[in-house]
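ok so for the tutorial part 2 we go from a plain amino acid sequence to predicted structure tokens. step 1 is just haveing the sequence, like this:
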Amino acid sequence: MSIPTHFDPKAVESKWYDYWMKNNYFHSEPDSRTPYTIVIPPPNVTGVLHMGHMLNNTIQDVLIRRARLKGFNACWVPGTDHASIATEAKVVAKLKAEGINKADLSREEFLKHAWEWTDKYGGVILEQLKKLGASCDWERTKFTMDPDMSASVIKSFVDLYNKGLIYRGYRMVNWDPEAKTTLSDEEVIYEERQGKLYHIKYQIEGTEEYITIATTRPETILGDTAICINPNDERYTHLKDKKAIVPIANRVIPIIFDEYVDMEFGTGALKVTPAHDVNDKDLGERHNLEIIDIFNEDATLNSFGLHYAGKDRFVVRDEIAHELESIGNLEKVETHINKVGTSERTKAVIEPRLSDQWFLKMEDLVKPAIKAVLETEEVKLYPSRFNNTYRHWMENIRDWNISRQLWWGQQIPAYYYGDGKEDFVVAETPEKALELAKEKTGNGALTAANLTQDVDALDTWFSSWLWPMSVFGGIMNPENEEFKYYYPTNDLVTGPDILFFWVARMIIAGYEYAGDKPFTNVYLTGIVRDKQRRKMSKSLGNSPDPLDLIEKFGADGVRVGLLLSASAGNDILFDEELCAQGKGFTTKVWNAFRLIKGWEVADIEQPEHSKKAIEWYENKLQKTLAEIEDHFEKYRISDALMAIYKLVWDDFCSWFLEMIKPGYQQPIDNATLSKAIELLESNLKLLHPFMPFLTEEIWQHIAVRTEKEALIISEWPEIKSYDEKLLAEFDFAAEVIAGIRTIRKDKNIAFKDAVELKAINSENASTAFDSVISKLGNVSTVSYTTEKVSGALTFRVKSNEYFIPVTGNVNIEDEIAKLQQELDYNRGFLKSVQGKLSNEKFVNSAPEKVVAIERQKEADALSKIAMLEESLAALK
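step 2 — the prediction. this is what the tokens look like for a chain of 876 residues:
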């Protein structure tokens, strides 16, 4: 097989991916081996690959490929999430562009369009993951709207309802007016924004007196049903039993007293709008106030908005302010910073709204999940600092609003048979619902036509919280072989932004349904940001297309570039230079392979320096392997890659290959070449999880192999003991070699010219690597002496002195002059430093750190002077 001069990712990536797929290397079935299982955080079905996906799935692929090499039955389950809000919004926009209004369609007609959209765009992101090299078990691909997955969700709802944990309630909810649906508290992102504080005057009925109230939302005065004052506020005690007139609306509302009001905020008086503020709703219930909802579902004003009906809330805000000013009811407007809730999905400003919704009681459900992470550590978060975040959310959790005013998703399995609030049954199927309705009403004449299913869909997260169980059929059939074998899974890799949305809820569901954790370890990646620390997004235009990066740098180069700077939980400041570095590494490994394969081999004796090189690298490999295992155990994936990177680049390419490389046009011995290939194979095994395409290509080139011997299913290097003393001896020898090379460079002594090396071995250093020193320094002889060598160039390694006798290529007089000049400079420098240190005022008043730096300068100068004096003495 001919070996190309340059590694071409485009020529190998599809070749080896197709080869792995053809041989079914990604697929897993239960067997006698220990399973290693990860489930993909399902991306939105209509999404495309972005940098966050790239990072997350690269880490998962590293873990699954390593597990495969370590002999586990590795199973990585891929899939997509139906993403109710995002997908429905896209389908609605598509229909609108075609002149079709969702409101004019039946649910069935709309869902037909949604499925067509999903079928057309749903597989894009999974196909893109293949370009990255993701070795998922594609035969197990799941979609949260698959029939069995939907059945699991419905069964879960019915079960929780029957346990008394799901209920229907009229509550203040977070309303997304763009998606026209309610959101859970966790889906609301609060942002600090600069707004305005409007001071509005309300006339006291029957008087010329006014009370001023400050609000950030003047449009809501049309829904005011009271003014509230703290009973301890002496400024307003005379208003007891009085009423006020709402400006513009001219409605008369009561003035009530409640200690809830903060006397220090604004004017100390509060307008009460029970339909549009959760705290106002509580006040309204305590004081039996009227509720006036002024908004339509899209946040335009309804008929209670009077002449503003049909206009957007923010347009009305400005117009109402102008009207209030024109009629003399606007006292003043101030700049005001406040927190505004926005939709995590659509970015629309959330509107508090009263609505009948379905809720899941969380108080008791969370207890096993709190214990698992914070007490028993059955589930570990990496990095552990996220434990505090997890604790705060779990200990302050509120009931989960699980219903959404959408059609795309699992329809809530509640069936109504009457007009009353309790006239419904909950069942997995319409047939079962009819049975229950007959039982509940005692009316055996009821038919399916008498039942109406709830129109709302379930929150998408209510589907995905079952993911680690439902992908293996664990909800519908918890006794099935696959669920028992693969669950609980091992590792979860995801972003910290969905620690609450998804991770915590999966832990809750795991203990509720399986009585066990859903996974053991949670690796929380950082957020990919640009060099200016901005989160990458399409709107900012700062996010590169991952497929363009793969095209430019190759999948391996991009994977390495991302992971070199991706420590757990820390944000990644992405720069294309990282990918260029990754590509450079692929070139380095490829050239090392080409160098080995380019050597002629002969049946000759193995040189001593090659024996020592092999002995050293085998030990170095084992030490690095121990470090890598420790990094993986602690989920320091970036550190593991860096350890491998240094091993291959520095130790293998820069040292080992140089040590064993035969002379120009000389052959290499059989024993050394065989061992070099064996060690290269070990390197490839370590690199494979990070650089699958490059390593498989080299592996297949090395020798004629059967299909069973593909690198992807080979064995991870065996962990053995290593000789720390031997490694230290090499490190010492490496410093000696560096000293020889420095002298060669400084004195222009060509490498082809052999030199002698004499040493005073004060350190009693090992001579085991003298043959390597001779090879890499082109030293003719290495000898040891107890006397200084005159007429020689010298250097030190620790307390050992090394001498290279001067040859005719070096002018002794010039060398003496250079050394003398350097010595004079260092003596002058030492004098200035010691002058500072002898100044008591400086020593006593300067910061301790500054004085320490000056003392270090003194020590360094003294050491340098001593070395220069010795070098001069040796030459004279």
